[in-house]
Amino acid sequence: MSADFQGYEQDYGVLTADITNRIGKIPKLSGEEKKQMVINVEKQLDEAKELKRSRIAYSDEVRNELLGDDGNSSESQLIKLREERAHLLDNTERLERSSRRLEAGYQIAVETEQIGQNILENLNQDREKIQRARERLRETDTNLGKSSRILTGMLRRIIQNRLLVVVLAIIIVFTIALAIYFTFRGH
To answer: Where is the T-SNARE coiled-coil homology domain (predicted)?
Structure first.
């Protein structure tokens, strides 16, 4: 009787330790591995609940058997039964705490994934803005190149026109000087 209950307790202890270990690994995982680990832990939690029900049923069966013997049960067996029940309740509380931690860890993982998704969307929008700005800069650079060529051409024409004006001015001054010279020399 006691060996069966200890077997239940040992199985329950191993299972809760494994669940706790896996819960501790969940925050370090990502993507599909994290989802798979959560599914496995949930299955183990269901298994632990079933084991707990089996232990409670066995405990009730033993208690009924001990109490139904019209005083033939010993007080030491009742004490052992109470101790085993206390262990069962303690393990149940641990399992419930682990379940709450698992749920909290899963919630944090979901929130982290949502934040990461928002960051990726913002980065994508920023990349598009930068690409549009780069394209505008290229267009501006092209337009500046055209403007520079036009201004260079205009500057050449201005210089040519000034040289032409200077040459014409020299010719006119020289013609006037010759006309004055021949006018005074002929008298």
So the answer is: 87-154
The helix or strand, by DSSP H or E, that contains position 176, with its residue range, turns out to be helix 75-185
CA distances from 109 to 38, 42, 71, 137, 187 (A): 11, 16, 56, 42, 115
21 CB-side CA count, 13 A: 7
Q: Is 17 helix (H, G, I), strand (E, B) or coil?
A: helix
CATH 3.30.70 fits 2-138, yes or no: no
152 vs 2: CA distance, rounded Å: 105
In order of 18, 22, 32, 181, the CA distances from 42 in angstroms are: 12, 11, 15, 120
Q: Is the pTM of this model over 0.90?
A: no
Tokens representing 114 are 């949502």
The DSSP 8-state label assigned to residue 73 in this structure reads S
Distance (Å) of CA 155 to CA 12, 139, 161, 169? 94, 24, 10, 21
- pLDDT per residue as tens digits for the range 108-155: 888 988 999 999 999 999 999 999 999 999 999 999 999 999 999 999
